[in-house]
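Summary of Year 1 activities. Much of the first year was spent building the evaluation harness for sequence design. The harness presents a backbone, in tokenized form, and records the residue chosen at every position. We chose the following record to illustrate the format because it has been used consistently in internal testing since the harness was completed.
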């Protein structure tokens, strides 16, 4: 079983920065990719940024140039550096990890961390 735990959310003023962390642990043989999603009230969950184990990244248009995703393969930990935050970035941010364990593949989600951008 693979657990995914996010941290780093909070309240920040518009224009500010936050750094989210997400660690995957458990019976992990290999991480294939990790990603950050977000869901605002009344909206569907949407992809914010993703990263493959080899380093390839992709970003939602709304966050390009402001957010940076990075992956520490040795620690099975993904980070999301969020700069120039806007009120519309307010949401619960979820981490997703995809990979293989000893006997099967996994696709695991964290519980989410709240990010609120407000003055």
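For this record, the design step produced the sequence shown next.
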């Amino acid at each position: 079983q693979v657990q995914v735990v996010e941290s780093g959310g909070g309240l920040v003023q518009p224009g500010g920065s936050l750094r989210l962390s997400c660690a995957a642990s458990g019976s992990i043989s290999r991480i294939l990719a990790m990603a950050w999603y977000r869901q605002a009230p009344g909206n569907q969950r949407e992809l914010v940024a993703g990263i493959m184990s080899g380093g390839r990244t992709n970003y939602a248009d709304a966050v390009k140039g402001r957010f940076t995703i990075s992956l520490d393969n040795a620690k099975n930990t993904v980070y999301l550096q969020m700069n120039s935050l806007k009120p519309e970035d307010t949401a619960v941010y979820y981490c997703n990890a995809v990979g293989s364990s000893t006997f099967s593949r996994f696709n695991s989600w964290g519980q989410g961390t709240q990010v609120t951008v407000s003055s």
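The longest strand covers residues 30-39. Quantitative recovery figures across the full test set are reported in Table 2.
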